[in-house]
Structures are given as structure tokens and as C-alpha cells.
Design brief:
By secondary structure, the chain is α/β, with parallel strands linked by helices. The protein has helices at residues 6-26, 95-106, 149-161, 186-191, 201-213, 234-237, 264-280, 295-300, 302-311, 317-339, 353-356, 358-364, 382-388, 424-429, 432-437; strands spanning 3-4, 38-40, 52-59, 63-64, 74-78, 85-92, 109-112, 117-120, 124-129, 136-141, 166-172, 217-224, 244-245, 258-259, 285-289, 346-350, 370-374, 392-395, 447-449. It has an eight-stranded parallel beta sheet with strand order 18-17-16-15-12-11-10-19. A four-stranded mixed beta sheet has the order 3-6-5-9, with helices on one face. Helix 1 runs parallel beside helix 2 (95-106), helix 3 runs parallel beside helix 5 and helix 7 (264-280) crosses helix 10 (317-339). The longest helix is centred in the C-terminal third of the chain and has 23 residues, at 317-339. The protein is elongated.
Length: 453
């Protein structure tokens, strides 16, 4: 974990404060630096008198990258005004709490169109405000639709304004692999829609820094072993064998391509990928995908059938699950090998048939190492089952939180599985605790809104 001293912390806080002033000026198109005068809003104050707002920020801890244990609480005290000055005191344990405090201060300031100036509440206090959930997320899928960096930054701006702290970046899928990695550029060369639709390492570093200043961590997801129809096709051309299977059968509404778990070269490539990801992303959490593994693809593969024959196995569902489990365990081992003492504290995978099996799940994806992201419907029995087994969970139910619903199925006129569109009222009306505490005496500690465009 990287710690910043006082000088470095001041530099980061300066960036935060600069963004804070910039956002205030965006409230009105004509606002410029010359308009940074402020009125107090209380009726008993003389209208038209300008005041100076002095903001002090007190942080008790050294800076470190945002993680699930970070204290994001803060307090804000405003006023009372005196001598033409309004004092605003922001106090927090961490940099991230202080940033949230400044965000709260910005919400106490508004633009007065009649007076053409800012106005602030003369007295206010927000004491010991803290998040209900340590993971407050928004997911962006840049595989299905490439989104330019400025668009991603706008989404991060919106997250910051609402104190969401986790940008879950679904980087790759069947459709494309748009991230260029220094040690494994073939993934983007074979996987991007076009060589102009690629995120460079510099783009990723820029986004990470941009998000950090706004109190957001970026959690990368490289989906595997399924949803891998793009990027992994370079194996045969480079003499590494088939790294992915069934890519030639790919269509984007049904069975998807799956990595080849019996090709040892695959794991070497995955480890190389992890080395690059670890150098780019300082997050203490990495998302390993893990959903919708297509057993039908494996059963049709000559390499998989030959492997089962050599092992004296029938290739039934039990054997398929064991093969999947072996893949997951080897990937976890390669992650440790690639990152060493800086390995992520937690790994996230999607709910799947693997996580539904209690015995297998605890052996392969133990609850002290893995967080399970639930994408099934909000009434699924998966929820109390996972909680009873001690898993921390991220909630992103397709029937409550998916924002790609309502556009229809790509292949014909049938309704998409998560139809209709999930408008904001439905999302806000869905109370996590009320829903889940009716199902289990356990507690839900993560909330995650899943966005896929």
C-alpha cells in the first residue's frame, strides 16, 4: 500500500479543491473567476452583502489508496458569518472523507440568477456522515460499446457528485478487448473493434488518477473463462495452440466462447496479463468474471474430449465442474505469482453454477478471499444462501439495477430477458436491507448498481 506524506497529500487536496471550484462555475455558463462572490442565504442577513468563504480541511490519517476498509466519514460545520466571512470546517479521518465533505459543501452553495452570484447557507452542520456501504458502485461495459475516455470521465464526475466510490470497469467480453497491455499487446491487436478504439496504458493511468482525486477507485474486470471471444485468438498464430475455444461459433445472444483450460500456455498468458494489470491498477480488488461458462463448447472440443479420455473421465457435468474449478484455482495461483506481496486482498466473481454449489464454492472460491457479485433476480434464493455461507456480496440484480434493459433482443422482436427499462424510480424504491433481511437474518454490506451500455 502506498502512503503519501503531508506534502503529497496537500497536492492531491489542491486538485480536489480546484475541481470543487470548477464544478461550482459550471452551475452557470456565465460564471467566471470574477464572479466568485457569495451571499449568505438567511433572511436576517442583509441582502447583497458579499462574504468571503474560508474553508479549512483537517485530515487525521496519511493518504493511501481507497479500499474496502477506508474510513470515508466526514463532518462539515458552516458559520455563523461574522465580519464578512463565513467559516467552513471540514474534518475527516481520510482524504476520501474530506473529499466527500467538500462535495457536501458544494451542495450547500447555489447560484442566484437574480443576483448573479453564489449563495451559501449561513449556518449548517453535517456531523459524522458516513456511507452505509463500503462498495458503492457503477459498472461500465466498454467491450460491447467502446466509450472514449472523456465520456468515462463524465461518468466518474457523476459518481463523485453522488459519493459513489467504485468504478467497476468491465473491460473485456466476447465483443471486444479494447485495453492495450504493454507485455501482451496481442489482446488488443486481436480483440479491439479497430486500432483507434483502444485504451492505452496512459489512458488507464489517466483515468485512475482522475478517479482517485474524485474519491473513486477503479476495479478492472477481465471476464474469463467465458465471454472471451475477442483478444485471445492470437495463440494459434504464435504457436501457443488454441487459447480460446468455440470463437468461430460466436454470436452475441447465445453460447459464448470459452478459454481452453487444458492449454498450459493459456495460464502463462494470464499471468503476464496480471503483471500488467497490477502495474496499472492500484486497487485492492480485482474482478475475474466467471459467469456463464458454456459446457457445450468444452464438450465439442477435441482437446477437451481427449483430456477427459486421458484422465479416464466421462466428460459429464461433474467432470466439467471439476475442470472449471481447476481453471479457477490455477488463475488464482497465477494472480499470486504475478503480484506477490502486492496481490489484491479480494477477488470478485459473478454468481454462477460454480458459486451455487456450496461445497465446491467454499473449496474453489473461499469466502475469505472472494466477493460474489449477484446478477440474478432480487428474489433469488442465491442471496440468503451466499450470506449464510459467509460471503460478502455485491448486489447488481438484473431486475432492479441493469440499465441496458428495454432496448429489445438483438436477433429478433422478442423482449430482452430483463425487459422493461429500469427507470430511476424503480432503482430508488428498491431497499436492499428491507428486501434481504426478509430473506435472511444476515446483513448485506455491499451495494452495487450495474450499468451496461
Amino acid at each position: 500500500m502506498i502512503h503519501f506524506g503531508a506534502a503529497e497529500l496537500m497536492k492531491v487536496l489542491f486538485k480536489v479543491f480546484f475541481n470543487y471550484l470548477t464544478d461550482l462555475r459550471k452551475v452557470h455558463g456565465s460564471v467566471s473567476t470574477a464572479a466568485d462572490n457569495v451571499d449568505v442565504t438567511e433572511e436576517d442577513d442583509k441582502q447583497g452583502d458579499d462574504v468571503v468563504v474560508l474553508i479549512s480541511v483537517e485530515i487525521s490519517q496519511r493518504f493511501e489508496h481507497l479500499n474496502l476498509e477506508t474510513d470515508e466519514s466526514y463532518s462539515v460545520v458552516v458559520g455563523p458569518p461574522g465580519g464578512g466571512v463565513v467559516l467552513v470546517a471540514v474534518s475527516a479521518a481520510s482524504f476520501y472523507g474530506a473529499r466527500h465533505g467538500l462535495e457536501a459543501v458544494s451542495q450547500l452553495i447555489s447560484w442566484n440568477d437574480m443576483e448573479q452570484r453564489f449563495q451559501i447557507h449561513s449556518e449548517a452542520s453535517i456531523l459524522d456522515d458516513s456511507p452505509a456501504y463500503p462498495h458503492r458502485g457503477f459498472s461500465i461495459d466498454t467491450s460491447r460499446n467502446f466509450l472514449p475516455v472523456p465520456v468515462l470521465k463524465k461518468m466518474i464526475d457523476g459518481m463523485a457528485m453522488n459519493k459513489l466510490n467504485t468504478f467497476h470497469w468491465h473491460i473485456s467480453d466476447d465483443h471486444s478487448f479494447p485495453l492495450s497491455l504493454p507485455s501482451l499487446p496481442q489482446l488488443a491487436e486481436f480483440g479491439a473493434y479497430h486500432d483507434s478504439l483502444v485504451y492505452t496504458p496512459e489512458d488507464a493511468s489517466d483515468l485512475i488518477d482522475y478517479a482517485m482525486v474524485r474519491g473513486v477507485r477503479i476495479v478492472p474486470e477481465i471476464d474469463m473463462p467465458a465471454h472471451t471471444g475477442s483478444g485471445w485468438l492470437f495463440g494459434a498464430e504464435e504457436g501457443l495452440g488454441n487459447l480460446v475455444l468455440c470463437s468461430e461459433e460466436l454470436h452475441y445472444g447465445g453460447p459464448n466462447a470459452v478459454l481452453n483450460p487444458v492449454n498450459d500456455n493459456l495460464y502463462d498468458a494470464i499471468e503476464t496479463m496480471f503483471v500488467d494489470l497490477a502495474s496499472l491498477f492500484p486497487s485492492d480488488t480485482v474482478h475475474l468474471g466467471g459467469d456463464e461458462v458454456n459446457f457445450g463448447c468444452w464438450s465439442r472440443s477435441e482437446e477437451i474430449v481427449e483430456y477427459f479420455d486421458e484422465q479416464g473421465l466421462d466428460g459429464n457435468d461433474e467432470d466439467m465442474f471439476a475442470l472449471w474449478a481447476n481453471f479457477q484455482e490455477e488463475v488464482a495461483a497465477r494472480l499470486v505469482s504475478a503480484t506477490g506481496p502486492n496481490q489484491p486482498k479480494r477477488k470478485i466473481i459473478w454468481t454462477s453454477a460454480l458459486t451455487d454449489d456450496g461445497v465446491t464454492a467454499q473449496q474453489v472460491v473461499p469466502s475469505d478471499e472472494y466477493i460474489i457479485q449477484i446478477w440474478s433476480e432480487s428474489t433469488s434464493s442465491t442471496i440468503p444462501d451466499l450470506l449464510s455461507r459467509g460471503y460478502k456480496v455485491v448486489m447488481s440484480h438484473w431486475d432492479q439495477h441493469y440499465l441496458d434493459c428495454g432496448v429489445g433482443y438483438w436477433g429478433d422482436n422478442t423482449e430482452f430477458y430483463c425487459h422493461p427499462y429500469k427507470q430511476w424510480r424503480a432503482i430508488y424504491d428498491f431497499d436492499l436491507r428491507e428486501n434481504y433481511l426478509q430473506m435472511t437474518p444476515g446483513d448485506v454490506i455491499f451495494n452495487h448498481v450495474y450499468y451496461r451500455v
